[in-house]
Amino acid sequence: MIGLPAGTRIWIAAGVTDMRCGFQGLAAKVQTALQENPLSGHVFVFRGRRGDTLKILWATGDGLCLLAKRLERGHFVWPQADSGKIHLTQAQLSMLLEGIDWKQPRRTSETLSML
Questions:
Q1: What would the mean pLDDT of 51-61 be, rounded to a whole number?
Q2: Staple partner for 100: which of 16, 68, 95, 112, CB 3.0–4.6 Å?
Q3: Are 53 and 61 in contact (CB under 8 A)?
């Protein structure tokens, strides 16, 4: 994962997004659906309908970055909401990118006590 500057907020765009969208389409969705500035330096995460692909839009000081990831097996855990945005921590984003359920992570100490 790329190190994000302090103060960077990470937003999930709830619902599904047409993965054919590129820089312009995702930036427009950030402005209209999320009511945020795509050039703010915050990170915006979008998921496709099948749930195995996501795109991340992030503005650095000199331009926009568009990152994509597709899971070979499984799907990305996504909020149930159809619209709006959900804030994530950097740790939650890391889990999301690994295909881990970031909404209900469990510490290993909890798992060990169950054995």
A1: 93
A2: 95
A3: no
CA distances from 46 to 5, 36, 102, 113, 115 (A): 20, 14, 15, 36, 37
Number of domains in the chain: 1
What pLDDT is stored for residue 5 in this prediction?
85
Predicted confidence at residue 104, as pLDDT, reads 79
User: Does 1 fall in a domain?
Assistant: no
Return the CATH number at 94.
Answer: 3.30.505
Provide the residue range defining the domain that includes 93: 10-114
Tokens of 33: 């659906």
Tokens of 2: 């790329």
Name the helix (H) or strand (E) containing 67. strand 63-70
3-state secondary structure of 28: helix
pLDDT tens figures, 10-41: 999 999 999 999 999 999 999 999 999 999 99
